[in-house]
C-alpha cells in the first residue's frame, strides 16, 4: 500500500508513534519496493512454483525446480532390489485380522475360526437356527407344506430312453416306450455260449440240455522220439528226445545262402551254398486235370505288319459275265492277198 511520508507528517505530526515508515526486507527477492516521487510501489512477484522447496530424504531424490517448464520429480530408489516385499495395507471388514506394530516389527494375528464366520441362510421351506459354533451349530429345518412326505417329486432316470416324463403345469405324465421286437419272436434273441469242461450251454436258457462235446476232443499221441503231454484243458506239450543221446552229431547248416540255393559238399566236410545246376531231364509226368479257364486278359497292343504270305492256289472258274456294251467301229483293215485264178471270186 503506497503512502506519502510528507503528507503523513503534516496530518499526524509526531504525536502517533506507531505510524512511522517501516523498512521492508525480502530475503528471497519475492517482494520489491519501487519509489516514484513521494509514492512507493510495493510489488509481490507472481508465484511460478519455484518458491516451493521440495527436498528428498531416505530413498527419495528430487529433480527439477518446481516450475511448469521443469516440475519437481521425486524418484524413490529400491533399497534391497526387491519390490515384492514392501509393506502392504491390510483390511479386514469383519475384524478377523489384526495388525499390531512393535517398533519396526508387525504382529499379524488371525482370529481362530469358530464356525460363526460361515453364514447359512434358509430359503423356500427351509429355516436355519443356531450361529454355527460348536455350542450352537446351524440347524436347517425343512417344513412339509402339504403335511404328506409320501408324495414328493422323484427323479426318474432311463438309461435306454424307454421312460419319458412330460410336465404340464404341476402335473407329470409318465410315458413308457417298449422297444419293438422287429421279428415278434422272443425265442431267437442273442445268446451267450458258455463252455464248462466238455459241456456247452446257453446263458439265457438255464433249462436247456447241455451239449456234450467230449466226442470231439482232440487226442494227440507221440511216436518214436516225440512225446506229447496233455494238461486236461486242451493244451498239449510236444517234446522231442534225441534218439542217440548225442547232440554233437547233428547236421549243422552253414550260415548265409540265398533263396533257391542248394547245399554242396566237396566230400571232405566242407559245405557251401551254391546255385543249383540243371540236372538231367526227368521222366514225363502224368497229364494233370484241366484247370479252370482264366479271366480274359486285357487287349494287347497291335503287332507289327506280318510278312507277305505265299501265293494261294488258283480258284475255280467264275460264272459267265454279262454281255459287254458294243465297242466302237474298228479301223479298216489292209487289202488281202489275191486269190488263186482257178477259183473265181464269189460275188456278194
Keywords:
two-stranded antiparallel sheet, 1 helix, 348 residues, extended, disordered N terminus, mainly beta, 3-stranded antiparallel β-sheet
Describe what you observe in this structure:
2% of the residues lie in helices and 23% in strands. With 348 residues, the protein is mostly beta strands. The strands form 8 sheets. A 3-stranded antiparallel β-sheet has the order 11-12-13, with no helix packed on it. The protein is extended, with a radius of gyration of 68 Å.
Please give the radius of gyration in angstroms: 68 Å
Roughly how many Å apart are the termini? 190 Å
Helix content: under 10%
In terms of DSSP E residues, the strand content is: 15-25%
Gross morphology:
extended
Q: Give the biggest beta sheet.
A: 3 strands, antiparallel
Structural class: mainly beta
Reconstruct the topology from this structure.
Layout lengths: L4 H8 L18 E6 L2 E6 L15 E4 L9 E4 L20 E6 L2 E6 L15 E4 L9 E4 L20 E6 L2 E6 L16 E4 L2 E4 L8 E2 L13 E5 L5 E5 L21 E4 L5 E4 L74
Antiparallel strand pairs: 1-2, 3-4, 5-6, 7-8, 9-10, 11-12, 12-13, 14-15, 16-17
Give a short synopsis of this structure.
This protein is 2% helix and 23% strand. The chain has 348 residues and is mainly beta.
Amino acid at each position: 500500500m503506497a503512502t506519502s511520508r510528507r503528507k503523513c507528517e503534516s496530518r499526524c505530526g509526531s504525536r502517533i508513534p506507531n505510524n512511522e515508515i517501516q523498512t521492508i526486507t525480502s530475503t528471497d527477492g519475492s517482494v520489491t519496493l519501487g519509489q516514484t516521487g513521494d509514492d512507493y510501489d510495493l510489488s509481490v512477484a507472481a508465484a511460478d512454483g519455484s518458491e516451493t522447496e521440495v527436498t528428498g530424504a531416505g530413498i527419495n531424490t528430487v529433480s527439477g525446480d518446481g516450475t511448469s517448464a521443469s516440475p519437481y520429480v521425486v524418484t524413490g530408489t529400491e533399497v534391497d532390489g526387491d519390490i515384492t516385499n514392501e509393506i502392504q495395507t491390510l483390511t479386514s471388514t469383519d475384524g478377523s485380522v489384526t495388525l499390531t506394530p512393535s517398533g519396526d516389527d508387525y504382529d499379524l494375528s488371525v482370529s481362530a475360526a469358530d464356525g460363526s464366520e460361515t453364514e447359512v441362510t434358509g430359503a423356500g421351506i427351509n429355516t436355519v437356527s443356531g450361529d454355527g459354533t460348536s455350542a450352537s451349530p446351524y440347524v436347517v429345518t425343512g417344513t412339509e407344506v402339504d403335511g404328506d412326505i409320501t408324495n414328493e417329486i422323484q427323479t426318474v432316470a432311463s438309461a435306454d430312453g424307454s421312460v419319458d416324463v412330460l410336465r404340464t403345469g404341476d402335473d407329470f405324465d409318465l410315458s413308457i416306450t417298449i422297444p419293438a421286437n422287429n421279428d415278434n419272436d422272443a425265442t431267437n434273441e442273442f445268446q451267450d455260449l458258455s463252455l464248462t469242461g466238455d459241456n456247452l450251454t446257453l446263458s439265457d436258457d438255464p433249462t436247456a440240455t447241455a451239449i456234450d462235446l467230449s466226442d470231439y476232443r482232440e487226442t494227440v499221441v507221440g511216436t518214436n522220439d516225440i512225446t506229447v503231454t496233455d494238461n486236461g484243458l486242451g493244451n498239449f506239450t510236444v517234446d522231442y528226445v534225441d534218439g542217440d543221446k548225442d547232440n554233437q552229431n547233428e547236421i549243422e547248416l552253414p550260415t548265409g545262402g540265398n533263396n533257391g540255393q542248394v547245399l554242396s559238399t566237396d566230400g571232405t566236410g566242407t559245405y557251401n551254398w551254391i546255385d543249383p545246376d540243371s540236372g538231367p531231364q526227368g521222366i514225363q509226368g502224368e497229364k494233370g486235370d484241366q484247370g479252370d479257364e482264366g479271366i480274359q486278359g486285357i487287349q494287347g497292343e497291335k503287332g507289327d505288319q506280318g510278312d507277305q504270305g505265299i501265293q494261294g492256289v488258283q480258284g475255280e472258274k467264275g460264272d459267265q459275265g454279262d454281255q459287254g456294251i458294243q465297242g466302237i467301229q474298228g479301223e479298216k483293215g489292209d487289202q488281202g492277198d489275191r486269190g488263186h485264178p482257178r477259183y473265181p471270186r464269189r460275188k456278194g
